[in-house]
Amino acid sequence: MTLLEDLFTFVGFDDGDRERLRELHPRLAPRFEAIANRFYEAVFASPGAAAVLSSPAQVERLRISLVDWMSTGLLGPYDERFYEKRSRIGRRHVAVGLASQYMFSAMTVLRLAYQDSIAELYPPGEALAVMRSVHKLLDCELAIMVQHYELDTEDKLIARERRAQADRILAMQTMSAGLAHEVRNPLNAAMLQLELLERRLRRMADDRRLIEPTELAQKEIERLTALLNEFLVFARPPELHAQEHDVVAVVRQVVDLERVTAEQRSVALAMGAEPAQVLAEIDVSKVHQLVLNLVRNACEAVPPGGHVTAGVRVDDARCLIRVSDDGPGIPEDVAPRIYEPFFSTKEGGTGLGMSIVHSLVSLHGGSIDVQTGPGGTTFEVAIPRWR
Questions:
Q1: Cβ neighbours, 10 Å, residue 328
Q2: Which of 38, 96, 107, 209 is the most exposed place for a label (fewest CB within 10 A)?
Q3: Tally of CB atoms within 10 A around 285
Q4: 53-69 residue pLDDT tens
Q5: Where are the beta strands (DSSP E) in 130-252?
Q6: pTM (global) more than 0.90
Q7: Is 347 helix (H, G, I), strand (E, B) or coil?
Q8: Can you tell me the distance from the alpha carbon of 114 to that of 172, in angstroms, rounded to the nearest whole number?
Q9: Could you read off the pLDDT of 6-26 as tens digits, one per residue?
């Protein structure tokens, strides 16, 4: 059932209402111009509503559109084309910045104008039935147009959340950069001194009891160095070096590289159905890194016997990279924190993997969305194809 059908069912808009409105049309049509004039008198009386009007030429175009709106509203047909036309009006009102309260006020002005005319054109009992049909129609039309204010509000909330997340990550990047700078020099010095110590011990006495502790310390420093390098990738995302490249090839390369590791975990990793090629201006190494992080996370999220699928598709001017798994999903209390730096539910995890993904996606001017539940998790990265 479409939204329009659902609305008509909800208000009880039936064939009798359709017939009454079609019969009303030839009687009301001679008054459409007068109703339009009355409508714009009300608009100009309200500074807030009038603020979106830019010129007399625009007002005249809108007046003509209003007459057409009244005519098609009474005649129908109430099909997909009707719905799309009303939706377009709602989207336009959002685009020009018309506050939602004026949508309701405007509809009241039209209701009263219809009511006054119907009272003159019909006997009282018949006028009531006709006006009931008009109310049903106008309520449905208003619902169609107002939904775009709700969609706009949702979009703004999502954008605000993304900005807040980006601000938090930026603050953590600044702190991490300073920390990494302070740690790197003494860490390098410690590694150098250990190497000197090991060489001296080997010259003095090739005793494994003396050498093994230095080797263990070196391995731990190497592990810390790798961790530090990950900090630096997060803290200082390098500049974007974009060039035209096949995104499908990048994703396929990651899948091929990680398939052996996935099989060792008894996880089936595969490419989903995708176009043979999707060209986009990307920084290949950074897209490779973010896909790698997503694929590894997905493979670690599923139990043995699980499945992970990666793929690419095109949506208008965007390239969409999707990584899905059939694991248990992200816990509700964890989901809001997945991009938070240093937050990890994995033992020994740095908590930087998804923060790095978020930074690299932002560097490309893209966005990342996640859908998760008991049946699995899907991350979808959207990147503009051309700069």
A1: 16
A2: 209
A3: 11
A4: 778 887 788 788 888 88
A5: 243-246
A6: no
A7: coil
A8: 60
A9: 888 999 999 999 999 999 999
